[in-house]
Amino acid sequence: MNILALFLVAVNPAALAASIPRAALSHASARAAFVVTIAVVAVLAGCSEPLLDWLDVSPPTFQVAAGAVLAIAAARSVAVGAGPLGDDDLSILTLMLSPQLVAVALTAGTEVGTAMTTIAAVVTLGLSGSAVLWQTRLAPAVWSWAARLLGVAGVAVALALVVDGVKTV
Amino acid sequence: MTGRRRVLGIVAVWVLGFGVLRLSLLAPEGCPSVPRAGIVASATAAADWLANGQETDGRYLYEHDRATGRPRPGYNLVRHAGVTMSLYQLAAVGGEGGRRALEAADEGLEHMLHRLVRAGDGLALAARGAATARSGASALMVAALLDRRLASGDEQYDDELRALGRFLSGQVADGRVAEELDLATDTPTQEVSRYATGEVGWALARLDTAFPSEGWDAPAQAILDHLATERDEEEGLMPAPWPDQWAAYLLAEVAPQGLSAEQVAYARRLAERFGTLVRFESQKDGWPPSPFPDPRARGAGLGVWVEGLGSLARVAEVDGRLADIGAAIDERLACGAGLLVARQAVDGGPEEVGAWFREDLTRMDDQQHALSALLGAEGSLERAR
User: Fold this and answer.
1) Alpha-carbon span B168 to B164, nearest angstrom
2) Nearest Cβ partner for B272 among A55, A58, A169
3) What count of other Cβ atoms lies within 10 Å of the Cβ of residue A163?
4) Nearest by CB: A65 against B6, B26, B275
5) What distance in Å separates residue A166's CA from the closest CA in chain B?
6) Rounded to an integer, what distance in angstroms lies between the CA atom of residue B146 and that of residue B144?
7) What DSSP string describes B310-328?
8) Percentage helix, strand, coil, to 5, in chain A?
9) Are the Cβ atoms of B25 and A169 closer than 8 angstroms?
C-alpha cells in the first residue's frame, strides 16, 4: 500500500480547499491546527503498536477497521462533495484531524513506522495548505467535484486496505 | 450552535463511532494463553469423550444433544475413520491418556477392518450394504493405520495399507479424485468432493513417506498440483482458497522433499485464509449478546482451521520462502489452540466433559478435529519454542 496515496485520500486536500476559507490561514490558531494535526499523527504513529496491544487487536485487524472508517468517509465525500465551513478554528481542526486520518495514522505507524508516517502527513497536509491558498483560482464547484473524485479514489484505497488486512495471516 | 454544543457533538460522534467499531470490527482478539500441559490435557479429555461414548461394535457416540441429554441418530463412516485417526495421534504422544486412546482406536479399527471390500486391485472401506465406497473413508483409514504404526511400531496392517493405497490411486485422474467408487461396476463415479481430494492426496503422500520408492508420490504430487492451481476455480469454491486443512496436511507431508513455486504460493494463501478465520473467531467473544444463533464456530470448524495452521507452521519451518509468515502462523496457532481449550466443556456428565458444544449440540468430529488440532499445535509450538 502506497503510504502517500493512503494519506492523500484520508486528508482529501480538495475537500479542505473547498471547505477552509483562505482568510482563515491568516489566523495563528488555524495555522496551529495544521501543526497540531501533524503532531497528533506523529504521536499516534509512534504509539501505534502499544496502543493496538492495549486494545488487544493485531495490526491486520486494525487495518480492516481503518479501511472501513476510510471507506465511510470517502463515500460521504463522493455523496455530498465539500462546501465552505464557517471561519471557525475548531471546525478547521476537526476537519483535518478526522477519524479516517487517525485510523490511517495508526495503521501506517505499524506498517512503515513513525518517520515515514509523519513525512506522509506533512506532505499531504502541506499540499492541502497550498490548495487552500490557491482556492480562489478555481471555482468552488470545481474543488467540490475534485473532492468527490478523491472520494472515489478513497473508496478504492479503503477497499484495498480491507482486502490487504483480510489477506494477512 | 454554540461552541460548547459543537464540541459535545464532535465528542459524541467520536465516542459513538469508536464504540460501534469496538463491538464489531475492532472487538478485542481474545486469545487465552495455554501451557503445553493444558493443550495435552484438553486433547486427552477430548479422546476420553470419544472413548467413553464408544459402543461394543467399535462405533463412537455420533452426536449428543446437551439440552435433552440424549444422543441424536445418524452415523458416518468417513468421520469414524477420522476419529480413529485422531485417537491414534494421541496414542503416539504416550502416557495414560494415550494408552486409553490406543485401546479405543483399536476397537474403532476393528470396526473398519470388518468393512473392507474388494475395490479395483485393492481394498476400500465401505459401509455394509452400500452401493459405493467413499474415497475419503479409505484415505482417513490409511491415515489412522499410519498413525497406529507410528504409535505402536506394529506393522501388521502394512498389506491393508498398500491395498487401500492401490484403491485410492485408482480414484485419481489428472490430480482429480473421484469421490466414490461404484462397487457394482468397480468404476469411479464422476463426482468430486471438496474434502476427499485433500484427504486422498495426504494419504498417498504419507504412504510414500512410509513406503518410499513404491510410486505413491506421483498421484500425491498430481493432487497437490491440482489443489494449488485449479481446484478452487473448477469447483467454484469462493472465496479462494477454500480453507482445506487436508491440503495443508498434504503440503506439510511433501514440503521436506521440496515444493514448487505454485505450491508455496498456495500454502501462503491458505495460511492467510486460516489466519484471518482464527483472528476473526477470536474477536467473537467481544461481540455484544445477540438474539441470533451463536456466531462462534463449532469445535470442528475451529479445529479444522487450527489443524491447517499447525500443518502450515511445519511447512514454514522447512521452506524458507514462507519464513516471513512463520511467526504470524505460530501466533494464530497459539491463539486458536487457546480458544479451543477455553471453549471445551469441563463440567457435566461423560457425554459433556471434553466436548465442544455449539447450540447445545456436539458431534464426534468436533472432538476429532479439535483433538488433532491441539496435538498439531502442541507439536509446532513446542518446536517454535
Assistant:
1) 6
2) A169
3) 13
4) B26
5) 6
6) 5
7) HHHHHHHHH-GGGHHHHHH
8) 85, 0, 15
9) no
C-alpha cell recorded at residue A12: 482529501
Question: Minimal Cα distance from A162: which residue of B?
Answer: B25
Contact of B78 with B365, CB cutoff 8 Å:
no
Strand-strand pairing, B187-188 and B180-182: antiparallel
Q: Residue A100's closest CA among B9, B21, B283? A: B21
The vertex-B276 CA angle with B273 and B277, nearest 5°, equals 85
Tell me the chain B residues in contact with residue A62 when contact means C-beta distances shorter than 8 Å: 26
Interface contact flag, B25 A58, Cβ < 8 Å? no
Per-residue pLDDT for chain B (385 aa), expressed as one digit of tens each? 566 787 888 889 999 999 999 999 999 999 999 998 999 999 999 999 999 999 999 999 999 999 999 999 999 999 999 999 999 999 999 899 999 999 999 999 999 999 999 998 999 999 999 999 999 999 999 999 999 999 999 999 999 999 999 999 999 999 999 999 999 999 999 999 999 999 999 999 999 999 999 999 999 999 999 999 999 999 999 999 999 999 999 999 999 999 999 999 999 999 999 999 999 999 998 888 877 888 899 999 999 999 999 999 999 999 999 999 999 999 999 999 999 999 999 999 999 999 999 999 999 999 999 999 999 999 877 776 6
Q: Could you tell me if B181 and B124 are in contact, meaning their C-beta atoms sit under 8 angstroms apart? A: yes
Q: Find the residue in A nearest to B282 (Cα).
A: A57
Q: B276 vs A65: CB contact, 8 Å cut-off?
A: no
Residues in chain A: 169
Residue of B4, B7, B22, B26 for testing the chain A interface, max A β-carbons within 10 Å: B26
Strand runs labelled E in chain B:
63-65, 70-72, 116-119, 122-125, 132-134, 172-173, 176-177, 180-182, 187-188, 361-363
The residue with cell 452415523 is B75
For the complex shown, is ipTM > 0.90?
no
pTM of the model: 0.91
- Write out chain B residues lying below 8 Å of A58, CB-based: 29, 279, 331
Compute chain B's Rg from CA coordinates: 22
Q: Between A62, A94, A168, which is nearest B10 by CB?
A: A94
**Would you say the C-alpha torsion A142, A146, A149, A154 has a positive or negative sign?**
negative
The verdict on a CB contact (< 8 Å) between A168 and B6 is no
Q: Which residues does B250 contact at the CB level (< 8 Å), separation at least 6? A: B198, B201, B202, B205, B220, B223, B224, B227
